[in-house]
Amino acid sequence: MNIEDRRCCVYAVQGEATGRVYIGQTDLLQRRLGEHNKGRVKSTKRGTPWKLVAREYFEDRLDARWAESIFKRSKGMRLKWLAKNKVRRAYASEINIPIEYQNRIADVSKKFMEIKKF
Question: What pLDDT sits at residue 117?
Answer without folding.
Answer: 61
